[in-house]
């Protein structure tokens, strides 16, 4: 009578508290409770059934948790979408997707005054496959600032349109908004952004472009040339780098030119967001922080992310309290480096508001202190004065105009802006025992269960570049591919001692 179905009902709470509970612990718990022997296979089936039950019951908690979050955190947005049900009289609805944007994160992102968001998706690892879509910004200290997240059925154009539509409503984005997005060139997100925000600037993550390039052209030389082209701030510098790549490999140059330049070249970026990032690292960092949430049930996954965001704001606030000065530490470091390089430059004043700043290696630019621009375009793209601007600032002091370089730094890098971003806290919520009963007439069912073929994948596929980096360590096992073995018995090459039959060939030993 002690079937796996019966035993699963008695280990549900234990498995819910510890999803990685070992089978031996389950066997010991059940044997002690019922005084019977439980085989390992039966314990494994019972754990699987308990996990499935936990996933199914978690769907019922999404509506209640959404209402509680909105009550405790004002201005929070929770949008739930279910599968279309032909029979409207049925009380049940199947879960499809959910979107959450906490009110404090929404207010903090607006306070940051930087219109830049990285978009990315990562897969769920439980029995109900899905994708976690995230929108992550950059704070005043160049750290990540998550804004919104969602769990959808798949990373498609339709799901990305729905996510961007919800995100646009929260951040007051219109079709003609001058916003900047960074993504990994996923097929579903490119048409979604073009459809929802045609006036937005869409940057492609350069690392993913490099990964696509390595399918045909491998080697450090191609990587260096790609980065030299993408990192150039001006169009002449970009053209020089592209000509260098063309001389190295014309086919690679032609392949790269097929990608629109405004998506990956700094020389063709606008300076609207005051950030010159070429990578989508903000989303990669956030995805790493929530890796333990991806194998949890839907409600537990959402709760894990909310708790992480709550703790992160507290941790950053502790760092902010220990800092002083007008700028954030990262911005101050960039400006100090520009000051060091500015001491080597020569400045010529035109008598109005423009300066000719020259240095070694034909480095000569025009600085306009009224428009706060430099022809090197670093000041325009980053919002932090370049070395030419700092040199011009010092020359203004010689002419009786005293303005410190820190005053020219964009407001998004101010320490006060950083403090304001993290002044909005995420409020805690009660446990399920204290939740009020919802008035929703429908019962939410979990999404369709898809039994995966083979052993479920827990880790993402690593690129060849990551695999090479993994082998750099001293404890790494080096490949023996291409090596010739030598027999310990006869000292001849081509076979080992286990297969030695006195055969040989020329010996490599003297």
Beta percentage is 5-15%
Describe the biggest sheet? 8 strands, mixed
Q: What class would the helix/strand composition place it in?
A: alpha+beta
Tally of DSSP β-strands: 12
- Number of separate helices: 19
Low-confidence stretches are: none
Nearest-angstrom radius of gyration?
29 Å
Terminal CA distance reads 74 Å
Q: What global shape is seen? A: globular
Helix % is: 40-55%
| Average pLDDT taken over every residue | 87
Question: What's the topology here?
Answer:
Layout: H1 4-8, H2 12-17, H3 23-34, H4 40-58, H5 61-72, E1 77-82, E2 92-101, H6 103-112, E3 116-123, E4 131-138, E5 144-152, H7 157-171, E6 180-183, H8 189-196, E7 201-204, H9 206-213, H10 220-231, H11 235-248, H12 250-257, H13 281-289, H14 298-321, H15 329-342, E8 346-349, E9 354-359, E10 363-368, E11 373-374, H16 378-382, H17 387-398, H18 415-421, E12 443-445, H19 464-470
Parallel strand pairs: 2-12, 3-6, 6-7
Antiparallel strand pairs: 1-2, 2-5, 3-4, 4-5, 8-9, 9-10, 10-11
Brief account:
The protein has helices at residues 4-8, 12-17, 23-34, 40-58, 61-72, 103-112, 157-171, 189-196, 206-213, 220-231, 235-248, 250-257, 281-289, 298-321, 329-342, 378-382, 387-398, 415-421, 464-470, and strands at 77-82, 92-101, 116-123, 131-138, 144-152, 180-183, 201-204, 346-349, 354-359, 363-368, 373-374, 443-445. With 510 residues, the chain is of the alpha+beta class.
């Amino acid at each position: 009578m002690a079937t796996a179905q019966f035993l699963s009902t008695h280990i549900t709470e234990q498995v819910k508290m510890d999803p990685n509970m070992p089978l031996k612990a389950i066997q010991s718990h059940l044997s002690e409770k019922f005084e019977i022997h439980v085989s390992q296979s039966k314990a494994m089936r019972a754990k699987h059934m308990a996990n499935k039950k936990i996933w199914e019951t978690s769907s019922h908690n999404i509506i209640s948790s959404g209402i509680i979050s909105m009550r405790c955190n004002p201005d929070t947005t929770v949008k739930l979408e279910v599968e279309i049900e032909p029979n409207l009289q049925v009380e049940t609805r199947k879960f499809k997707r959910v979107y959450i944007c906490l009110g404090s994160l929404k207010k903090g992102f607006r306070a940051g005054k930087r219109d830049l968001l990285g978009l990315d998706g990562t897969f769920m690892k439980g029995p109900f496959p899905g994708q976690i879509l995230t929108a992550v910004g950059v704070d005043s200290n160049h750290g990540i600032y998550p804004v919104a997240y969602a769990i959808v059925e798949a990373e498609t154009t339709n799901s990305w349109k729905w996510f961007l539509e919800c995100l646009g409503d929260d951040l007051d984005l219109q079709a003609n908004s001058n916003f900047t997005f960074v993504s990994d060139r996923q097929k579903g997100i490119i048409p979604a952004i073009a459809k929802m925000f045609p006036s937005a600037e869409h940057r492609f993550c350069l690392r993913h472009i490099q990964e696509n390039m390595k399918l045909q052209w491998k080697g450090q030389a191609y990587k260096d040339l790609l980065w030299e082209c993408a990192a150039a701030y001006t169009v002449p510098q970009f053209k020089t780098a592209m000509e260098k790549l063309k001389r190295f490999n014309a086919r690679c140059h032609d392949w790269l030119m097929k990608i629109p330049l405004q998506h990956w070249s700094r020389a063709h970026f606008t300076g609207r967001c005051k950030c010159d990032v070429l990578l989508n690292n903000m989303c990669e960092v956030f995805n790493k922080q929530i890796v333990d949430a991806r194998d949890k049930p839907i409600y537990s996954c959402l709760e894990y992310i909310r708790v992480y965001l709550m703790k992160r704001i507290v941790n950053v606030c502790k760092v902010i309290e220990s800092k002083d000065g007008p700028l954030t530490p990262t911005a101050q470091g960039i400006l100090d480096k520009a000051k060091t390089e500015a001491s080597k430059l020569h400045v010529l004043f035109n008598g109005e508001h423009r300066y000719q700043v020259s240095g070694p290696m034909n480095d000569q630019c025009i600085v306009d202190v009224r428009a706060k621009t430099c022809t090197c375009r670093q000041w325009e793209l980053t919002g932090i004065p370049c070395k030419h601007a700092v040199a011009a600032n010092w020359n203004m002091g010689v002419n009786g105009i005293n303005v410190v370089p820190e005053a020219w730094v964009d407001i998004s890098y101010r320490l006060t802006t950083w403090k304001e971003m993290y002044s909005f806290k995420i409020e805690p919520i009660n446990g399920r025992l204290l939740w009020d009963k919802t008035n929703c007439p429908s019962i939410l069912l979990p999404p369709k269960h898809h039994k995966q073929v083979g052993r479920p994948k827990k880790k993402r596929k690593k690129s060849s570049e990551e695999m090479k980096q993994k082998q750099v360590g001293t404890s790494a096992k080096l490949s023996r591919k291409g090596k010739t073995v030598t027999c310990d018995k006869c000292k001849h090459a081509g076979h080992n001692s286990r297969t030695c039959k006195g055969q040989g060939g020329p010996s490599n030993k003297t």
